[in-house]
Amino acid sequence: MKIILLSGGSGKRLWPLSNDARSKQFLKVLENQNGELQSMVQRVWGQLTNVGLADSAVIATSKSQVDMIQSQLGQDVPMIIEPMRRDTFPAIALASVYLYSVEGIGLDEVIAVLPVDPYVEDRFFDRVKDLEETVLTSGADLALIGVEPTYPSAKYGYIVPAFKSSDGHYLKVIHFTEKPTEEKAAELIKQGALWNCGVFGFRLGYVISLLKEKGYSVQYEELLVQYNELPKISFDYEIVEKTKHIVVLPYDGYWKDLGTWNTLTEEMGTNQIGKGIVVESENTHLINELDIPVAVLGVSNAIVAVSPDGILVADKAKSPKIKDLVNGFDQRPMYEERRWGWYRVLDYTKFEDGREVLTKRIGVAAGKNLSYHMHRYRREVWTIIRGEGEFALNGEIRRVKSGDVLDIPVGMKHGMKAITDLELIEVQIGTPLMEEDIIRIFMSWDEIEQFCRYAR
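Above: the chain's sequence. Below: its structure in token form.
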């Protein structure tokens, strides 16, 4: 069995910590067994490792999340990268075609698809293992996992089986109901309905044959070219709801979607992360990513979240509405994790004559490197404020240290390797200033050393 982990999301529901570059699954707010902070994706990858499934897993994600995944899971984690973000049907189609045409996976191989961020016990993934036998023995086109509800929630979709399970074996699915009222949900639960947790399995040949019927290529490189032609629609709407023979495996353990501040804070091991103080406040959480103190006095049942992207003070019960409130914000991500470290935007100014100036604080982890690259529209000035490194500029490498100022004209090839943990202040000057203004020449430092010579 092969596993496709879907890593997407627009980064709105847990604003201001989440943004377009850092969706909810990358927020390090959960505690592991050692009391260290970890993200949802780190937790899930660890659980897959615990049950022996990590070696069979691949992450389907967008280009904007590649660096974040590598930063949190390592450089070697297998990924299938969408050329653009287009919802779960295109993502699963591309991943399936990759497994078929590039890895040579057989059409009878069972594929399990699941989100990268469920909050579950390890034994949930033992249930995922059961999908393989269920698909092979039931004769169904799709096999789902349904969570036995603990209360009539209006936030989840429901899978309605033919009858209520008494032994935990698979059941034939009759229909689906998406986010009913609490009253309707209570009726569905009496009928044996299960929460839809977005996990399903199928023979690889089932999706490959559907793609052929729809006129799409089942060769990976060709589908990449066609990708913008695929409908921007969920796999549930495009495939699941049109499939006739579906079964569901009930799961009776703990499962939670940590998609809003009120549900996420329920699973946090502490009520405060970062600099500040919370006093005379019940059930209030403070998460502060800035290096300034935040004081919360006499405010109960609230979430106070502070990041370079903004400040949120909200009643926890109202927090699910945040996505709608911030949809109109037109702001670039102010903080990102990258494969080499992180950066934080400190200031942005656009002058009357059109010139733009952007200031960042950048951290590069020891042994990591920035790519050897150039910019067409901007000049950069780097001031090293911490650590030591090697700086490559137009074919020459030299040693740099704290206090050095490096001027990089427009069009000049440059890169940096951190010998120790290194921080620098980067000032970009030019028009337009955008992350896309980068032409990468070499990614690894070994390649850079082969091309550049060391200064004497």
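The mean pLDDT is 92.
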